[in-house]
User: What shape does this take?
Amino acid sequence: MKVTHIPFQETGFFSEIMHHYLEQNENLKPFYNNFPDLEGFRKQLVEKENSFPVENRKVLASALTEQYDKFQVSEETKSNIELLIEENTFTITTGHQLNLFTGPLYFLYKIFSTINLCEQLSKEFPDNNFVPIYWMATEDHDFDEINYFNFDGKKVAWNRKDGGAVGRFSTEGLKEVFDVFSEHLGNSKNAIYLKSLFTKGYLEHNNLADATRFIANEIFKAYGLVIVDGDDAKLKTLFAPFVKQELQQESSFKAVSKSIYELEKNYKIQVNPRELNLFYLGQGFRERIIFEDELYKVLNTEYSFTKEEILLEVEKNPLAFSPNVIMRPLYQEVILPNLCYIGGGGELAYWLELKGYFNEVHVPFPILLLRNSVQVISEKQAGKLEKLNISKKEIFSNQFDLISKKVVANTDIETDFSNKIEFLKNQFKDLKEVAIKTDVTFLNAVNAQERKQIKGLENLEKRLLRAEKRRQKDLVDRITLLQNEILPNESLEERQRNFSNYYLEFGSRFLNILKEELNPLQLEFTILEI
Assistant: This one.
């Protein structure tokens, strides 16, 4: 096995705001707290230790014990839950939707990043305990984003009626999905494991939250992963004061809008706040709360409350109040003794909008860490890359640009017209000096003729390159086929493929490689040749 690391920025798949964050650009420093390095964690430890209530620890441990009540808990996970009561214990958190059978590959990369960072911090700060957390997005209602996974180039989908928080969805109908999936697996040892994992997860649990907890627990229990379901009355009680503040003051809207005003001067905004960033959660529905005509109304329902009534409802029924994408990060940081959130580029981009809001409500803003990203390449693919003289870095190039570069490198014909265009410009430069001495109309005619001839040369250059690509069709086809194998749909495979593709081939060895090779503080993209 060979391992190569390249800077995230060189893959071309990460936004400008993430490039600047990794480079600690001055424009972004007002929008985050501590940078993800050891000095940053040292500062974050002090901030969180001084602000996190002991009582919250007890409630958290109690809620997690109840959430795991129906599951076989490893000694490592059980110990970590118990450690959360201790004042010197802190968490590192990642979050993910309840995608069918874990969804895209980066689910694994997120969680191994979290586990490995906890282990690294334990060595650096031996007086503290660090617990890896997977926050299940059980209250999301975007079912179309999670109801499928891709296996062997095919979409395996669960079709059912949408509505409400996905964690509460019944697993009814997943037997048919299993039947379709299992047809493609065969009967190898690894196939049998995958079938068992799917069956025990989805066919032996009644709702999607429990099924997802079972599957994630089976994969990661040896590493002490603790899985949190935010759809929990005890945990929501801890968050109730912030819900009341939101309802009365529209705190998040005001603070985040100020941050966006500054942030959008240089960057694209990921999400925009609403006046109230809360949903009302009921059986089979999750709908926005709005304030209208002096009443708090739940859209698409008959529910409405006066101010006194809704504040009383928060106290009596905190489970019904569900934070949206703007407030969910705050909920997480209120109930967890958390130091760092690990996420993808899109996630961290919207977290950067939230620091002002955290300051407003006096909750420490966590360190933001870009998760590990991985590209898997087979030995056969690596051999083809070498024959085609394509480097690991070049794999991620735009396909048109990559093909053009290799076609030009493989011909003796001069396909670059830069010198010819420069020569033409110099000829017109002399002509312009003559034109200046005559009149402006003649100068305009010279400029127009220059533009016309340069455009003509540029078009000829493009036509010559197209002709050369046709002449080298075999090379073009080989590059196209290989890059499409490595980057399906010209996208990172971690966003397209499911872990079952590699588990079927490599078994638990694939998981062990990820555990061994992913270094979250390295801040680099990992290429695994296996």
